[in-house]
Specification:
The chain is α+β, with helices and mostly antiparallel strands. 52% of the residues lie in helices and 14% in strands. The protein is built from 15 helices and 17 strands. Strands 1, 2, 3, 4, 5, 6, 7, 8, 9 and 10 form a 10-stranded mixed beta sheet that branches. A hairpin with a 6-residue loop joins strand 13 (457-460) and strand 14 (467-470). The longest helix has 37 residues, at 188-224. The chain is flat, with a radius of gyration of 27 Å. The N and C termini lie far apart (65 Å).
């Protein structure tokens, strides 16, 4: 199917007076966006790394510089708010500045100056970002005009916040427990570090709770009255995130914003008490059928995500005025033309894209698609040109050995840091044992994994021995970030190794995981490319648990000697 022509919505599904959000009107909306320095759009990985770095710096300042644990942990949580939850900065910035001012006399001037400067600059950036939301809202309402409509499926349960609410309570509980037990730990530094972690976990828990409340509040407000409506185009990217385009951007050249969406399945929330007298009291048949349908639907969704190909461009109606952090509802044409329009609710806030960022995003997607096509083509050609082999095998290489060495080095560093004290606390011993068991289970796989292909399927090594995966059960073989992931019906297997994408692009190199994934994908799709023979037991590899046992014993000996 060509993606040049969008999948159309039925005319009856489009509300009256619903305007097209054309590229011209959308340009005015994009012009209202703040600059990049306001942290408008930060990747989750970068936000997590920066927050972790701030936590480490705060803990160091608390243990060596005398900074209050409350202020040290609050600084790390504040950084998270700046990047991901700017609404909370109005309360966090004054509190941090007050804490630094009260403790300024007992702190090195550099700590106070750097901390105050970071708070003031980030506070100003967030103020500009939040002020720009009003201009975005005004432009969106002007584009919608008088077109309003009640959101579809308005009677559906509000699911926003269902995940963050219990998560926040759980993390908050961990923070309280950590604080209660802080004074039971060994040295003064350990106690201060424990208090930093207690306040940090408490801050994370409260952040999750407030985020759940904000999301639910905005979702409920969207249902109360007719919402502004706009005709747009949407497309799901290779990771399942929805991109929204102007109504006349038929080639999907510049996304306006992205948003995480979730659909509502009314059947899953219906009453299951069985009030109908003709219903089977046991419900076994219905339960089995429901489980099977749910399993098939999950497999379908996972297959769609693993395709690494963006979905088709679809016509849609956007309910709710979009702006940075807004909640929206999207009514779009289903990818299956025989299905009715699909109603999806935002599962996360609207995240705008500047014009240049949108163009770069599309360019990266096209480059990734072209690279995937080239890899598959090269893999297919290599298999076709090569004489048919009875058995094909792949095994761990030097990148996997580097990954194993890095894991061992990380574990050794943590253990050395914990064993520098004359008297080892029991909690550190428990942590060292747990770390050793994890390493003993992961390092053998990194060092000695093997995949063997024969005419019946794949044999994948593991701790307990090789597992057989028939060709028909394989769902996907993909390299995502640092990870090679093989997924089959009901289970999966993965291994990770270092990767430098920019270096590979500059040098024209192909990561071994990319080559392996492309070749296995070609064999999965075309039976004529598969091996023709049956593998023997030695070719399939041996169980890896003996090596895991040896590593665990070595780790135990190290603990005994150092302890």
């Amino acid at each position: 199917m060509s993606y040049d022509e969008p999948l159309r919505l039925p005319a009856a599904a489009i509300p009256d007076d619903c305007r097209d959000w054309t590229a011209g009107r959308a340009a005015n909306w994009s012009a209202a966006l703040p600059s990049r320095w306001t942290f408008l759009r930060v990747r989750r990985s970068i936000a997590g790394a920066v927050t972790t770095l701030a936590l480490c710096a705060g803990a160091w300042a608390a243990m060596l510089g005398g900074l209050w644990p409350f202020v040290a942990a609050g600084f790390a949580v504040y950084v998270l708010w700046v990047l991901a939850r700017p609404e909370l900065v109005w309360a966090g910035a004054p509190a941090l500045l007050l804490g630094l001012a009260v403790q300024a006399s007992s702190l090195p001037w550099a700590v106070t100056a750097v901390g105050a400067s970071i708070v003031v600059v980030s506070w100003a950036a967030v103020a500009v970002r939040l002020r720009a939301r009003g201009a975005q809202l005004e432009q969106a309402l002007e584009a919608a005009g008088d077109g309003t409509a009640q959101v579809p499926d308005g009677e559906a349960p509000v699911r926003r916040g269902r995940f963050l609410l219990p998560l926040g309570l759980l993390v908050l509980g961990f923070g309280v427990v950590t604080g209660v037990t802080a004074n039971l730990w060994g040295t003064v530094d350990d106690r201060r570090g424990s208090w930093v972690m207690a306040f940090y976990l408490t801050g994370l828990g409260l952040t999750a709770l407030v985020s759940a409340w904000l999301g639910r509040h905005r979702a409920v407000a969207l249902r109360r009255a007719p919402a502004p409506v706009l005709r747009v185009l949407v497309r799901d990217d290779a990771q399942g995130t929805t991109e929204v385009y102007a109504a006349d951007d038929l080639a999907a050249t510049r996304p306006l914003f992205t948003v995480e969406l979730t659909s509502y399945d009314g059947a899953s929330d219906e009453d299951e008490d069985g009030e109908d007298g003709d219903e089977d009291p046991s419900g076994s048949a219905d339960a089995d059928g429901g489980d099977a349908d749910a399993g098939e639907e999950l497999e379908r969704l996972l297959d769609a995500v693993d395709d690494d190909v963006p979905g088709p461009v679809r016509e849609a109606v956007l309910f709710g005025a979009p702006f940075d952090g807004a909640e929206v509802v999207v009514l779009s044409a289903d990818e299956d033309p025989d299905q009715p329009p699909l109603t999806e609710w935002s599962a996360g806030p609207v995240r705008p894209l500047s014009p240049s960022a949108g163009v770069r995003r599309v360019a990266r997607e096209k480059a990734r698609e072209e690279q995937n096509r080239q890899l598959v083509r090269q893999a297919r050609e290599s298999v076709v040109d090569r004489a048919p082999a009875p058995v094909r095998r792949w095994r761990a290489g030097w990148l996997d050995w580097v990954a194993a060495a890095l894991l061992v080095q990380w574990g050794a560093w943590l253990t050395w840091a914990g064993f520098t004290e004359a008297e080892l606390p029991s909690w550190k011993l428990v942590l060292a044992v747990a770390l050793g068991l994890y390493g003993a289970a992961r390092v053998p796989v990194k060092l000695a994994w093997r995949i063997t292909a024969d005419r019946s399927g794949l044999w994948v090594t593991g701790l307990r021995g090789p597992r057989h995966v028939p060709w028909d059960d394989i769902r996907s073989v993909r390299r995502r970030s640092f990870e090679l992931k093989l997924r089959w019906r009901g289970d999966d297997w993965s291994v990770a190794a270092p990767r430098w994408a920019w270096f590979e692009r500059r040098r024209g190199l192909v990561h071994p995981y990319d080559a392996l994934a492309a070749e296995l994908s070609a064999m999965r799709e075309d039976p004529a490319l598969r091996p023709t023979g049956d593998s023997t037991t030695p070719e399939r590899g041996r169980p890896l648990w003996p090596l895991a046992v040896v590593l665990a014993l070595v780790w135990a000996a190290v603990l005994v000697v150092w302890g």
